[in-house]
Amino acid sequence: MSDLNDRRFWIAKEEEIMQGKTTDVYFLYTKQVLEYAKMNPRVAIEIFARHVKDNWGIVLGIYEVAKLLEGKDVNVKAMDEGEIFLTSQSPIYEPVMQIEANYADIAILENPILGFLCSSSGIASKAARIRLAAGDKAVLFSFGTRRAHPALAPMIERAIYIAGFDGVSNVLASDLMHIDAIGTMPHALILAFGDQRDAWKAFDAAIPEYVKRIALIDTLYDEKAEAIMALEALGKRLYGVRLDTPSSRRGNMRKIVEEVRWELSIRDGGHVKVFVSGGLDEQEVAELRDVVDGFGVGTSVSASPPIDFSFKIVEVNGKPIAKRGDLAGRKSVYRRGFNDIVTLTDSKVSRYLEEHGYEPLLKDLIVNGKIVREFKSIEQLRLDVKKRLGEFSKAEHSVSWML
Questions:
Q1: With contact defined as beta carbons under 8 Å apart, do 60 and 147 qualify?
Q2: What is the full DSSP assignment across 277-289?
Q3: Are the CB atoms for 164 and 127 separated by under 8 Å?
Q4: What is the average pLDDT score of the chain?
Q5: CA distance 257 to 253
Q6: Does this model's pTM top 0.85?
Q7: Residues 6+ apart with CB under 8 A from 75
Q8: Does the structure show a pLDDT above 90 at 347?
Q9: How does strand 139-142 pair with strand 294-297?
Q10: What integer is the mean pLDDT of 347-366?
Q11: CB-based contacts of 254: which residues, under 8 Å, 6+ apart?
Q12: What's residue 248's pLDDT?
């Protein structure tokens, strides 16, 4: 196969995404047919998920969709970036976004719109579940972008950070978010020196003081033995130890951690924090959160499955219509607590719900092509998501409908 002519890597350029070139070909056929028939109907499109794990997820990617559609002949309503959306076992669904546009103009943008929302929301939802499993005290670091396409690293780390992780390791993503990247040391550093103590001491001598001294302690010997070695090598300068024990050597991880803590504590190392990484998921995090200070989570969150959002027409030229299995008509979602009600937009029910303390979740994002919502900072989004998750974890939640 010959080299690519206009790029080095198999990735889309920003302008190609904006132009709809990442579409599926049948949308090009659709546009061509509509142009041939001199048709360009005004449609209402809703984006929703029928089913997600535990019937809830976090929607993210709203910002990127807004930037994609800005300046076009569209009106868009959407949930807030980082909002919790619900699903149910009934046919009722909650739109996370509603788009009004001329269909021939919007059809080729379905792929990037869904791609922005599905990928970011899937990662954020997974990260939020891990955050809940870890509780409030344990620190969470994202270590997973090495197993993701590098072009997606900023999106991945943004989603993870907003959903509640305390730090991310990817340098570019950290730069874009204006935060410090977080990391320790790889096994390769230990192996390059051939002696753990020499590697730890060199790290301590070479790396700036603001970087915490967290020694990797499972490279060549037993974790307990290397923990003692690290304390002897760095003393009070040792902030923490990280266990990255592979599953084939792991055994009972809880007992290994407790042994390490004991051996450090009886040697005046009670100040040393214990971090665990390597193949972690919600279950392992929940099981260890009371005996460790933090977790480095990688592939399980950076490669989490996308949310399976659908992009469906629900109105054509002002008339409700939908394919079978979908629900016709523009909808609004109202919430009180986490009891959500879906109803037709601008109905008497909408007014009744607002009068009785229900808040609308779908709000103007773009009006006549102009973004009308002020986007929040990364840090504010994190605070909002943390607050929502805290409330959500203690509340009952449901989705119903009223007409």
A1: no
A2: ESS--HHHHHHHT
A3: yes
A4: 96
A5: 6
A6: yes
A7: 99, 100, 101, 364, 366, 367, 368
A8: no
A9: parallel
A10: 94
A11: 287, 288, 291
A12: 61
Res 246 pLDDT > 80: no
Both tokens of residue 191? Answer: 């192996």
Q: CB neighbours (10 Å) of residue 307? A: 28
Tens-place pLDDT, residues 198-236: 999 999 999 999 999 999 999 999 999 999 999 999 999
pLDDT band (50, 70, 90) for residue 90: confident
Classified as helix, coil or strand, 301 is helix
How far are the Cα atoms of 66, 163, 296 from residue 28, in angstroms, in the given order? Answer: 22, 36, 44
- Count how many residues are written for the chain: 403
What is the CATH architecture assignment of 130-302?
Answer: Alpha-Beta Barrel (3.20)
Residue span(s) of the chain under CATH 3.20.140.10 come to 14-122+305-401
User: Collapsing DSSP states into helix, strand and coil, what is residue 23?
Assistant: coil
DSSP annotation string for 54-70: GGEEE---HHHHHHHHT
Which pLDDT score is estimated for 3? 87
Which tens digit of pLDDT belongs to each residue from 105-152? 999 999 999 999 999 999 999 999 999 999 999 999 999 999 999 999
Residue 378 has a pLDDT of 97
Ramachandran sector of residue 318 (left: φ over 0; alpha: ψ -120 to 50; beta: rest):
left
Give strand ranges (E) for 107-245: 139-142, 167-168, 214-216, 240-243
Residue 11 parent element (H or E): none
The Cα-based distances of 81 to 61, 98, 383 in angstroms read 7, 14, 12
pLDDT at 1 over 60: no
- What is the distance between the alpha carbons of residues 46 and 331, in angstroms, rounded to a whole number? 8
Spatial separation of the C-alpha atoms in residues 182 and 201, rounded to whole Å: 19
Q: Are the beta carbons of 371 and 63 closer than 8 angstroms?
A: no
Share of the chain above pLDDT 90, in %: 93
Looking at 3.20.140.10, 2.60.40.180, 3.40.190.10, 3.40.605.10, the CATH number of the domain 14-122+305-401 comes to: 3.20.140.10
Kindly report, as residue ranges, where domains of CATH 3.20.20.70 are found in the chain.
Answer: 130-302
Is 247 within 8 Å of 221 (Cβ atoms)?
A: no
Q: At what angle do helices 223-234 and 196-206 cross, to 10 degrees?
A: 40
